[in-house]
Amino acid sequence: MENLNSIVIKKSVYGEADYLVTLFTREIGKVKGIARQAKKSKKRFGGRLEPFIHLKLDITLNENKFNVVNDVSLIKPFPSITESLETFAFGSFVLEHVDLFTYENEKSEELFDATINIFDQIDKKENILPTLLNYQLTLLRINGIQPNFEEINSKEVKFDITNGNVYGLSENKKGEKFHKFHLDIIKNEEYMDIFLGKVSDNIKALTKYLEIQTETEFKSSKFLEELKL
């Protein structure tokens, strides 16, 4: 049996009372398992096996069989995330990042801690956009696909979302694949709280880049655009 720090990425009903769950753990990365009788057992699960909760997970890892979630206990909930459509969309957006860029048996303590931190910021409704941009940059760096923003000494560049290349504004680069990107707030993080419009532009550009990298559309990104992220 393992005791793991975890968050629920997603879950689905299996049979009459079980859940199939995908979890992100600090100690071993992504793990999938079955929580037997989770719909009925208030003592062992008690509605805690939900997204946006930092959990202590008691799990039995079974090679070539279902991993079995035996019990969960509460470390810290983030209840405000589910209280509005806006915060829920931000939280769901983060979980989509986690699902696409974490892997079984590949732990990332740094990304786990960053995920808990951004849940805390969304829950408090504080510094959400700057924290989200930093989260995306952390995720890109950990996965080895962060664009090289150091090559051009300019406040603004054209960002090629197909390959992550950056070009000066004066270069003759046109088309839908080129997005405005602000390097001044990347190189001077203290500006992020001041220039939220620039932060928003960068998040949108990086999201398009991530969608191309994974060949997957972020479901929650459309809703965030409607909120005028």
Task: Characterize the structure shown.
The chain is built from 6 helices and 8 strands. The strands form 2 sheets. A 5-stranded antiparallel beta sheet has the order 3-2-1-4-5. A 3-stranded antiparallel beta sheet has the order 7-6-8. With 229 residues, the chain is α+β, with helices and mostly antiparallel strands. The radius of gyration is 19 Å and the shape is elongated. The longest helix is centred in the last third of the chain and has 19 residues, at 196-214. It starts with a strand and ends with a helix. Helix content is 34%, strand content 26%. Helix 1 packs antiparallel against helix 2 and helix 1 (85-101) packs antiparallel against helix 6.
Quickly describe the structure:
With 229 residues, this protein is of the alpha+beta class.
The count of β-strands is: 8
Helix content: 25-40%
So how many helices?
Answer: 6
Please report the distance between the alpha carbons of the first and last residues: 43 Å
Could you state the order of secondary-structure elements as H and E?
EEEEEHHHEEEHHH
Question: Which labels suit this protein?
Answer:
229 residues; alpha+beta; OB fold (Dihydrolipoamide Acetyltransferase, E2P); de novo design (two linked rop proteins); 2 domains; five-stranded antiparallel sheet; 8 strands
